[in-house]
Amino acid sequence: MMPPVARTVDELRAATRAWRARGERVALVPTMGALHEGHLSLLRAGQAEAERTVVSIFVNPTQFSPAEDFSSYPRSFDEDLALLATARADLVYAPTAATIYPEGFVTTVSVGGPAKAGLEDAARPHFFDGVATVVAKLLTQTMPDIALFGEKDYQQLQVVKRMALDLDLPVRIVGAPTVREPDGLALSSRNVYLSSEQRVTAATLPAILREAVASLRSGMTASEVLPPARVTLHEAGFFVDYFELRDASSLAPRERAAAGLPARLLTAAKLGSTRLIDNWAV
Ligand code: AMP
Question: Which tens digits make up the pLDDT trace of 14-46?
């Protein structure tokens, strides 16, 4: 059976209010649709922790720059609904743009710290304020007990965690591991942009990331490992935006992996006009 679809905050809250009155916990999985196994893994993680799950589908215009792919971003609502029916989501929240950004909308969330780490934010200066604003709204609209985000978008996960802490949002933010294709490429709605040749090359990104992680784990420093890895990526056909070792939560630069100080290796690289991101725990 297809899950019910709420289009307005009133419809959404009518459902969540009834659940909460029965003592059922609610998990929210925010997405931009074009769903794949990565999104479904977040749904399953939510189902493990809460009696009820809401999957939101909203392609958020404010996190795209004018040069980015807002109008061409893949949209597949009917297929998404069918997937969510099979995966037994309890409710799909697909707000209209006017529900999220009503006439006269002027209030936004401005994020710092991990949002200003010089990673995604360097290429996309308005991205995280856009993400934080829409996520804050989805959280206050749904008022879930937990909300799930993929480690695939690692900087975003840290930004959302920091925002929830700073704004006392009464929700537990949970990160879930990246789901990958058999050759290691992280699943992404944007992978459909890759030509078949680029798709083959794309798998070298996670491969080089993992090799670099192994070198860092063996005690080599960032200055020893990262520059040659960037060159290898360049030679494979990538334009590298960043390939960086960072503190796992503040995202401040780190020179080496050390016991008790979790670090993360993060990268973004373009193949033609398609930008791929990935990261790995060190
Ligand atoms: P998006 O629809 O791309 O905005 O992603 C919605 C959520 O799904 C975000 O929390 C992403 O981090 C997460 N996500 C996207 N791709 C993956 C993946 N391959 N594995 C796990 N989570 C993912």
Answer: 999 999 999 999 999 999 999 999 999 999 999
Region of 143 (left: φ > 0; alpha: ψ -120 to 50; beta: rest) is left
Q: Is the dihedral of CA 15, 17, 20, 22 positive or negative?
A: negative
**pLDDT tens-digit profile of 136-166?**
999 999 999 999 999 999 999 999 999 999 9
**β partners of residue 245:** 265
Residue 179 CA, ligand 1 centroid: distance in Å? 9
Span from the CA of 43 to the centroid of ligand 1 (angstroms): 11
Residues annotated as catalytic (active site), given as ranges: 39
Pocket of ligand 1 (CB under 6 A): 31-32, 38-39, 41-42, 149-150, 152-153, 176, 178-179, 186-189
